[in-house]
Amino acid sequence: MLKELWSRMYRFGFNMLQNTIKLSPPRKRDGWIMRSFENIGYNPRELAILSRVRQHQQVIFDSDPFDASGLAIDPKYLQLRQPGDSWSDLTFGRQCISREELQLWQEALEQLAPRGRRAQGLGEHISTGHKIWHWCFEEATGRLQYSSGASVTVFCPHGQRGGRLQQYIPGQLPQEPLQPSHWCTVEVLDSGAAVIKSKTAIPKVKLAPENLIEVLTEWGCEWMWEELKMTGGVGTGLNMELEEGGDSWLRDAIKDNSLVAVTDGSFIRQICPHLCSAALILECTKGIEADLFFL
Q: Less CB within 10 Å around the terminal CB: N or C of the chain?
């Protein structure tokens, strides 16, 4: 297929731009679902079928077809996704799935969760991932929200909780948008009320570092930077106070290829047996600024 694609692109004068998507399992103890199917023992023909159904169901990781608890299969993944429904923010190729292929998929999911539950539950979310969670919960107000495309419905607690699961019924949209704290797997009853079956905390969005000091702090091993000195900064080490835009010259020097790094190649086995180039100077060849590191 790839050879034919390359041949046609060459024939008609097209250029190919490869854009690799960075993906990693979004939960602790998570993994790639096709690898799990392979470990179960499915043969190559069966794996090819499962991969096609996986694409139709917009699944990549073990956690995708599981509910918010990470223990049980979400029932909706046992049936074919309807055209127009989006279960992922990624784009998957179209697949035409037969009843027999769907049955193989159902059996494979049951292998991942024998008798309806995993032997070991999936851990907490470490990233948001690609899966779309239509239901979310705001712990501060106890409200539930369903979002699908352009429409949003807010559900409010109804009646006394008692010994049964709390029910939620549609209410008025708040003036301010909800601040969800959890993703939920929800069952909608015949009455129209919703019941939360399980929920998982939404991982906090990791903000990009604003300056070099924050980058070095994120790396850990703060002792290495105790003697750090930087033009545009007051003090030494990671507690140094940076002037506004004090390290912008470093970004600009990397961008315009004017940055030079010089090291004395020193090596002190007694202190750092796995660290060499212990003294490092970064300087801009334009003579604008200089950055001096002592590691």
A: N
> Domain check: are 143 and 190 in the same one?
yes
Which element (helix H / strand E) includes 233?
A: strand 233-234
Q: What is the pLDDT of residues 23-47, one digit of tens each?
A: 899 999 999 999 999 999 999 999 9
Number of domains the chain is built from: 3
Phi, psi angles (nearest 5°) of residue 231: -65, 130
- Run of H or E including 124: none
Cα dist. 119→30, 35, 110 in Å? 13, 17, 12
Helix locations, the chain, DSSP H: 2-12, 33-40, 44-56, 99-112, 212-219, 248-255
- Distances in Å between the Cα of 90 and the Cα atoms of 55, 56, 203 are 11, 12, 19
Domain boundary, last residue among 85, 116, 147? 116
Task: Summarize pLDDT for 248-288 with one digit per residue, the tens.
Answer: 777 788 888 888 877 766 666 776 666 665 567 777 777 65
For residue 269, give its domain range: 212-294
